[in-house]
Amino acid sequence: MTETDLVVAVLAGIVQGIVEWLPVSSQGNLSLFLSIAGTDPAVALQLALFLQLGTTVSAATYYREDIALATRSLPGWRPQRAYAEENALVSYIVVACLLTGIVGIPLYIFAVDLAGQLTGGVFIAAIGVLLILTGVVQIASESVSMGGRETPTLLDSVLVGAVQGLAILPGISRSGMTSSALLFRSYDPPAAFRLSFLLSIPASIGAAALTVTSSGGLPGISPTAALVALSVSAVVGYLTIDLLMRVVERIPFWFVCFGLGGLAVVGGGLVSVFVQPA
Q1: How far apart are CA 218 and CA 63, in angstroms?
Q2: What 8-state DSSP symbol labels residue 76?
Q3: What's the pLDDT at 68?
Q4: Which end of the chain, N or C, is less surrounded by CB atoms within 10 Å?
Q5: Three-state DSSP class for 116?
């Protein structure tokens, strides 16, 4: 691993560790960073998915009590009482992950193939458009009145799992889309973010496994660089999750999506015009 690779790995871990908790697409922003750093667009997409493993460790540590509660309920789980209060969390995670796979795997294959055909500038601009779309969804969800719901239903599981599958596309915020879907279903913001982040744990593990399987190994990164990036993202993610959860309640992140998305569209257009492919 060269000194440049080390710097990129550390910076990638920092970016992932911070933006994972914000509804502004960690995958999109990390793909942007890696593309700007000179990574091929298709590889940048795969790396952005793989490096979510680091913040998965952070989320699992932060929500360890919820995970323990769900684990203890497993022996008593019965299909006829799948969405009874004591079983609802386990059922929600299982059904939502199933829908995520059904929607997300075909989109992943399409996205990697498409990214491989795009120039760097067009890829950056495409991420910008999807970031703006995420902002539109967040504006719409903020207009919905909160009903105080906390326990997920089968419909919630199917809906959230499907929109999480869409987040395989860089620029579509996983946390933004899933929490917005829960807000549309009349959940209070704290409950919506809790259910969103709990679902991110198995989803991120599955996404990382998918990238490793499809690329035949670590996607475009050395084992040492991967370990550095994952370690940095895990540490930064754990240190920032509580702070950023409080910030989420105060800042309209649709504004952040519009700002980053607009810059990406303009910047990608300029790159396409002034930077010729080799």
Answers
A1: 28
A2: G
A3: 87
A4: C
A5: helix
Q: Which of 102, 77, 75, 232 is nearest to 162 (CA)?
A: 102
Indicate the Cα dihedral angle 197, 198, 203, 209, nearest 10°.
110
> From the centroid of its chain, how far is CA 27?
6
- Picking from 132, 130, 169, 135, the residue whose alpha carbon sits closest to that of residue 251 is 135
Burial 11-25 (b: 16+ CB within 10 A, else e): bbbbbbbbbbbbbbb
Q: Among 57, 51, 116, which residue's Cα sits nearest to residue 238?
A: 57
What token pair was written down for 269?
Answer: 């257009």
User: Using CB atoms within 10 A of its CB, is residue 47 exposed (0-12), middle (13-18) or buried (19+)?
Assistant: buried
- Name the average pLDDT for the chain: 77
pTM across the whole model: 0.67
Quick check: 211 and 219 in contact, CB under 8 A?
yes
Residue 258: burial class (beta carbons within 10 Å; 0-12, 13-18, 19+): buried
Confidence (pLDDT) at 234: 93
Q: Supply 33's token pair.
A: 């960073």
Q: How many CB atoms lie within 10 A of CB 78?
A: 8
Q: Is the pLDDT of residue 21 over 60?
A: yes
